[in-house]
Write a structure and sequence with these properties.
Blueprint (H helix, E strand, L loop, with lengths): L2 H24 L11 H10 L7 H27 L4 H23 L8 H13 L5 H20 L19 H5 L1
Length: about 180
């Protein structure tokens, strides 16, 4: 990729992100204060290769992660209610549930839309960030974050190989030479 390509792609990513944030702020989701979950889903999708065909896997895995995070927290709260210390409650629950969670996704659901563990752990993280509240807004925002990542990545299709915007590029090939 040329520097022009990378710069113009950055312009696309910035425009898409700016429009996304404005639309998010104007939506009812803004009232929950979880727009940051977008920026958990976005890098996970990118760093994992951002393949168009895996979009739903990342979206569904993020949603599943929020559910797992809620489960972790319920276990921790339950153990705290039984009188266990915070460190024992968190250590045991996180250790046990992580084994169950990873085994389930590695062994039971490897060929399903719920197979992206990085996205799932991103969902767990944002569930922890709210103490298990705002579950539905978090799920929606993670899906929107994966959607923004997909839109950002698709911006590469608007650029020529040397980084010019396709809608401004001069035509090439046999049709251009005939005129």
């Amino acid at each position: 990729m040329t520097k022009r390509f990378l710069f113009n792609w950055c312009v696309w990513i910035g425009l898409a992100t700016g429009v996304y944030v404005v639309l998010y702020i104007l939506s009812p989701l803004n009232d929950y204060g979880v727009v940051y979950a977008t920026f958990v889903a976005l890098p996970i999708y990118f760093i994992s290769g951002a393949k168009r065909g895996e979009y739903l896997n990342f979206a569904f895995s993020g949603v599943t992660g929020v559910a797992w995070g809620w489960l972790y927290l319920q276990g921790i709260f339950w153990m705290l209610g039984l009188g266990f210390s915070n460190i024992v409650s968190q250590g045991l629950v996180c250790g046990i549930v992580t084994v169950i969670c990873c085994a389930f996704h590695f062994i039971v659901t490897p060929n399903t839309p719920f197979n992206k563990l990085p996205a799932m752990f991103g969902g767990i993280a944002v569930a922890f960030s709210t103490g298990g509240t705002k579950i539905v807004p978090l799920m929606i925002t993670l899906v929107l974050g994966a959607t923004l990542a997909l839109i950002c990545n698709e911006g590469t299709n608007l650029l020529t190989e040397d980084g010019r915007w396709k809608f401004f590029a001069k035509p090439t090939g046999s049709a251009a030479t005939k005129s």
